[in-house]
Design a protein that fits this description.
Elements: H1 19-28, H2 33-44, E1 49-54, H3 60-68, H4 90-99, E2 105-108, H5 114-127, E3 133-140, H6 144-152, E4 176-183, E5 191-199, H7 212-225, E6 234-236, H8 243-256, E7 262-264, H9 267-270, H10 277-291, E8 293-294, E9 316-317, E10 322-329, E11 333-340
Parallel strand pairs: 1-2, 1-3, 6-7, 6-10
Antiparallel strand pairs: 3-4, 5-11, 8-9, 10-11
Helix pairs in contact: 1-4, 5-10
Amino acid sequence: MPGVEAVELPGRLADWDCRNNRLAWLALTSDGFFGRASAARDRYGADRVALVMGTSTSCIGATEEAYRRLLPDGQFPEDLRRPIVHTPHSLGDFVRAALGLEGVAVTVATACSSSAKVFAQAERLIRLGLADAAIVGGVDSLCGSVLFGFNSLELVSPEPCRPFDRARRGISLGEAGGFALLERDGEGGPWLLGYGESSDAHHMSSPHPEGLGARLAIQDALTRAALTPDAIDYINLHGTASQRNDEVEARLVAGMFPSRTLASSTKGWTGHTLGAAGIVEAVITFLAMETGLVPGTLNAQELDPACGPQIRIRNESAEVRFAISNSFGFGGSNCSLLFGKARHE
């Protein structure tokens, strides 16, 4: 992402300096979020605002750099001899320090569903009385492990990804950061009405052939929200543009939802932002609810035969009262979030 390398963290946060945390700082200080989060901390108390962060690689890029620059005696170079940037919880620890929070702080690392699952964990923390509000988010920056890992699986497309297209050739990798504030009784929407989580554990990197875990996640989200499939106006699909994932998800949506439901993958715009995909696509879903502009599936030209009438190529204007955002990670770690424009009893 342009500009990340030029970001300078405040002096009090210098020990956390690395590319992933600089990207997190960019997201924290965008769209007035830092002020909203600080106001929530002051309103509820620093120990009553939970922090739940999703990431798939955390700050592993800094560790890779440290190993590339090992000193002759085997030590890390002095500028990277900071243990906090070499731990899986580096991102969460950084955000906690940046916002001055003292409550529950959790890192979720379930591959591509990481920053979708943060919403579910936050809801449970608030419902159980362990927090009065929660800041959720996800941040993932590109690193060698990601680039070489996906390439070794032959999942990276040589051209911009084409989700659900008959001729799709794989994913486009991206990086992103995003945050949201969850409160029990906020003003206006959107509202988290339901969520569903599952772990089908079918294969290390391939989805269950019948989409069993994904189906369970979607159905649980509908059940928690006390809604039926015909109430859903829009689905932001996981839609990575990989062969098997898109086929399974397309068949699942075609079989579960009526033809009037609009569905699309937005990874043609963002790339696959891995552990940040859940929060990025939740925000896109919020924008669709707010504006009535439902995004199409960028770069798709001819849809795969597995697709039903729900999946759309072009942007459309429509009222979005209820929407689902799907995130399905490696190992069958699935999460579906169901949001409402207004509170639904």
